[in-house]
Specification:
The chain is an alpha+beta fold and about 260 residues long. Helix content is about 15%, strand content about 30%. It contains 5 helices and 13 strands. The strands form 2 sheets. Strands 3-4-5-6-7-8-9 form a 7-stranded antiparallel sheet, with helices on one face. A 6-stranded antiparallel sheet has the order 10-1-2-11-12-13.
Length: about 260
C-alpha cells in the first residue's frame, strides 16, 4: 500500500479504524482479498507472494507500505509482502517479531511495517532506527516514516478525523483518501525521482501513467465488541467503475483493554 490513515484506540465505539489506498503497476498479478489457508483475510501478490494488509480472527493484523528512497537503494533477497504474511501466520509477539525483522533489515527493500495482536500496535521501518509502540490517536503512513508530514498524509489524518466524528461506516471510509490535488515541489521530499514524478505521486489518488496508479482501497472497522468489518474496493483504470467485496468476523479471543 502507499497511503494509510489509522485511528488507534481513539474512538468510543471503534478502537481500530483504517482507510487505505494501494498503488501498484496495473499489470502486476494480484488476487483480491480472501481467506487464506492460514485463516487470515488478505489480498495476495501473485508475482512475489505475500500481502500488504491482513486480518486474522485471532486478533492479529498487519499492514505494509513501501519506503521510497532511490538515493539509498537496497539489494533485497526477500519480498516485503512476506513480512505481513509471516506475522499473520505466526504466534510470535509483535515486538519480538519486529526485533527479528530489525536484525535482518537489509534482506528487504525499504518498508514501513505495522503489526498488532489486538491490544498493542507496533511499527518499524528499515529506514528508521527503533521499533515504536503506536499510541492512541490518528496516524498516517505513506512512503516515508510514520507521521512524517507529507501533504497527502497530513490530509489523510484530517479526513479520517472528520469521518470518525460522524456515523462510521465502511462506505464513508472508502470515500476519503481520494484527493487528486498535487502539491508543489517545495513541500515534497526528495526521494531520488524526477521532480515531475514526485509531484505526480503527491496526490492521494494516483494515475501516474497508463501503467501505474491507485488500484484499490480498503476500509476497516473493528468494534469494541470484537466485530471486525473489511471492505475492499477495486478500481478500473479511469475510476468510473469499481467492484466491492466485504468480509466480517468476530474475534475468537477477547481483547480486554480495548
Amino acid at each position: 500500500m502507499c497511503l494509510v490513515a489509522i485511528s488507534w484506540k481513539n474512538h468510543s465505539e471503534y478502537p481500530l479504524i483504517i482507510s487505505a489506498n494501494r498503488d501498484e503497476f496495473f499489470t502486476r498479478p494480484t488476487e483480491r482479498m480472501h481467506r487464506w489457508e492460514s485463516g487470515f483475510y488478505a489480498g495476495k501478490d501473485l508475482r512475489s507472494g505475500g500481502t500488504w494488509l491482513g486480518f486474522h480472527p485471532n486478533g492479529r493484523w498487519a499492514l505494509l507500505t513501501n519506503y521510497r528512497d532511490f538515493l539509498q537503494q537496497r539489494k533485497p533477497t526477500i519480498s516485503r509482502g512476506k513480512l505481513v504474511e509471516d506475522f499473520l501466520a505466526s504466534q510470535e509477539a509483535p515486538q519480538l517479531y519486529l526485533e527479528k525483522i530489525k536484525r535482518n533489515r537489509d534482506l528487504y527493500d525499504g518498508f514501513n511495517l505495522m503489526v498488532s495482536e489486538g491490544d498493542q500496535l507496533f511499527y518499524y521501518s528499515n529506514f528508521g532506527e527503533e521499533i515504536k509502540e503506536i499510541q492512541p490517536g490518528f496516524h498516517a503512513l505513506s512512503n516515508g516514516l510514520i507521521n512524517v508530514p507529507w501533504p497527502k498524509a497530513e490530509l489523510a489524518k484530517q479526513q479520517l478525523a472528520e469521518a470518525a466524528a460522524l456515523d462510521m461506516s465502511l462506505d464513508s471510509l472508502l470515500t476519503i483518501l481520494k484527493s487528486e490535488q498535487k502539491s508543489p515541489i517545495q513541500l515534497l521530499p526528495n526521494t531520488g525521482i524526477p521532480e515531475e514524478m514526485e509531484i505526480a505521486l503527491s496526490s492521494q489518488l494516483i494515475r501516474l501513467n497508463e501503467n501505474y496508479g491507485t488500484v484499490s482501497s480498503t476500509a476497516v472497522l473493528r468494534h469494541r465488541s470484537g466485530l471486525t468489518q473489511l471492505k475492499e474496493r477495486t478500481f478500473d483504470w479511469d475510476f468510473q467503475k469499481y467492484s466491492d467485496q466485504e468480509f466480517q468476523f468476530h474475534l475468537n479471543k477477547p481483547i480486554e483493554t480495548l
